[in-house]
Structure formats: C-alpha cells, structure tokens
Amino acid sequence: MSNLNHKTGSARAKLRFWGWGYADEQLGDDELQMIDLMLEELMPGGSVEVDEPQLDDFKLPPPRVEVPQHSWVFTSISKYDRLVHSFGKSYADLVGMLLRRVDNPPDWVCFPRDESDVERILAHATENNIAVIPFGGGTSVCGAVEPAVGNSYRATISLDLEHFNRVLEIDQTSRAARVQAGILGPVLEAALRPHGLTLRHFPQSFKFSTLGGWIATRAGGHFATRYTHVDDFFESTRMITPPWNHPDATIAGFGCGSLAGSYGTGIRGYTWCDHRGMGQTAAGAAMASIDQSTLREF
Q1: Burial class (CB in 10 A: 0-12, 13-18, 19+), 18
Q2: Burial class for 81, CB neighbours closer than 10 Å (0-12, 13-18, 19+)
Q3: Do residues 227 and 200 make contact, with C-beta atoms less than 8 angstroms apart?
Q4: How is the beta sheet containing 155-160 ordered, strand by strand?
Q5: Alpha carbon distance 154, 128 (integer Å)
Q6: Which of 239, 264, 241 is nearest to 250 (CA)?
Q7: CA pair distance 40, 184, nearest whole angstrom
Q8: Residue whose C-alpha is closest to residue 246's, from 255, 238, 235
C-alpha cells in the first residue's frame, strides 16, 4: 500500500491545500496593494506575517485502518490529499492551516469513478464502522467537510466526487438536464451553453463548488435575480445511501425538499435540474454604501 502515500487520485488542477484557489494562482500587484491598504486601516498597530504553509510543515497521524485492496485504485492516503480534505474554506479553517494545526485529517481520501465504487466504499464503511464525509469542491464555510466525527467511529473517509462531472442527458423540450453531482459550476455552464441553456445559479463559490454541494446546502445564487436559490431548479435526484440492500433512490421534485439542505443524507449520483434559456445580454450592478446622515433623510 506504500504507493498510496505518494499518488493522488485527483485529476483536477492542483488546489492550494491550505486556502482558496489553485496552487499556481497568485494575487496580482493591485490586489496585494489593496490588502496592504486594508491592513493599515483595520490594524493600525501593525500585523504579523505568517509564512505560507508547506506540506513538510505538517505531520499527520497514519491512517487508523488499512485500505482494502478493492479500493486501492481510487484511494489516496497522501499528505497532500488528506490536507486538502481536512478543512473547508472558512476563516477558522484558514487560521487552522496557518497555525499548522489539523486535528482531524481523514484517514483516506477516495475518488470513486462511478456509482459501483461509491457503493463499494459505503458497504465497507458500514461493515467496519467508518464515517464517510462527501466532498464536492471543499468550499464549505460551516465545517461540513471536516472529518470531525468524534470517537465513536474507527476511522474517516473523505469521498471526493470530482469524477462525477458530466452532463448525462439534456431534454430540450422541458429544458431539463440530468447532471452528475460532482460537476463544478463553470464546467456545468460550459456544457449547457452549446444547447442555449443555463442553470442560472451563481453562488459566490461558483468557480470551485459543485451541483451536489449546492443542493446539499440549499445554496443561494448571490449574482442572480428572481431565481436565486438552487431549490428553484431542483427536480429529482438519485441518492446512494447505506445500509439498504437497494441503496439508491430516485426522488421526484415533490419529495426533494427534505434533501435540499440535507448535508450528509447520502451520496448524490446525479440530479435532474430545470434550466433557463440563455439571455441575449448580461448586466451587473453594485450598491454603494451611504453614511447614516444621508440614510436618515429617506
């Protein structure tokens, strides 16, 4: 199993394990200057600079259980993968990384290639008292992807759905699409665009978050009007859930309310979503803040 220590099952561009963005993306000079100005305003007494975390800064405990041979091909226990899947992207998560304090790294990270892999993982976890934490884009700011499950489980698995990233079917008549849950926002929109369709759901985490994550958290699209929440588009879903003998359920729209915002009910294989025709123009607007004296005049 030694090769699992060094390989990654991820096919995505390398993420910055300790914070937002891809590892090769850097802030521009204008952005750095703006941050310096903000720090001067907010912290006139000066700030303390902390070096960017490096993989060698962290010493993680070894996995508490062995990876079964049937899962070797899509499982990683590398330090990089375990760190990427240790936290979400809240301020507290960032501070934890800057302090080099990771109390609950997952024992393994699995990158299933299809639903049979998911079923195999869930069956093994159920039989061996292992907690499974679904992981989409890792953009949670409320601890939803952190493997902090207490002491009642033998181990934890972070289940990364990045390979579930395709639009499987498009119904032009009803303007609906069957989409795998691990698809990122930009990838989904790029797949719909040639068909003249858009989901029209744009949360602030759009670039790095997934359809399954939006549904699990009942996400809002902060850069859209009228149709602003994923509930507006969610028609039905296929769930893969332990421990039943037939561990999948396709739930129609009238029953989806309990799954939107459900966080860890199960693993979404795919979802039918209602889509809109693409508009001919796009527009944006910003609201400027006004001082209280001006506000009192209204």
Answers
A1: buried
A2: buried
A3: yes
A4: 75-76, 108-110, 155-160, 130-135
A5: 8
A6: 239
A7: 36
A8: 238
Could you tell me which of 205, 63, 210, 202 has the C-alpha nearest to residue 135?
A: 210
**Residue 274 to residue 249: CA distance in whole angstroms:** 19
β-partners of residue 267 are: 240
Q: Mind listing the domains of the chain with CATH numbers?
A: 2-23+52-160 (3.30.43.10), 167-277 (3.30.465.10)
Cβ 206 vs Cβ 185: under 8 Å:
yes
Instruction: Tell me the CA distances in angstroms from 247 to 111, 125, 161, 211, one per residue in order.
Output: 19, 14, 17, 21
SS3 of residue 91 by DSSP: helix
- Phi/psi for 69 (5° steps) reads -60, -35
Give residue for tokens 């030694």: 2
**Residue 254 to residue 236: CA distance in whole angstroms:** 8
CA-CA distance, 158 to 119, in Å (whole number)? 14
DSSP assignment of 3-36, as one string?
Answer: GGGT-----SPPB-TTSSSBTT----HHHHHHHH
Beta pairing class for 155-160 and 167-171: unpaired
SS3 60: coil
pLDDT in tens, the chain (298 residues): 555 665 677 889 999 999 999 999 999 999 999 999 998 888 888 888 899 999 999 999 999 999 999 999 999 999 999 999 999 999 999 999 999 999 999 999 999 999 899 999 999 999 999 999 999 999 999 999 999 999 999 999 999 999 999 999 999 998 889 999 999 999 999 999 999 999 888 998 999 999 999 988 888 877 767 777 887 887 888 888 776 444 444 554 444 544 554 544 456 556 777 666 655 445 555 554 445 444 344 3
Tokens describing residue 4: 């699992």
Q: Which residue(s) pair with 158 in the sheet?
A: 109, 133
Half-sphere exposure of 13 (CA within 13 A, CB side): 10
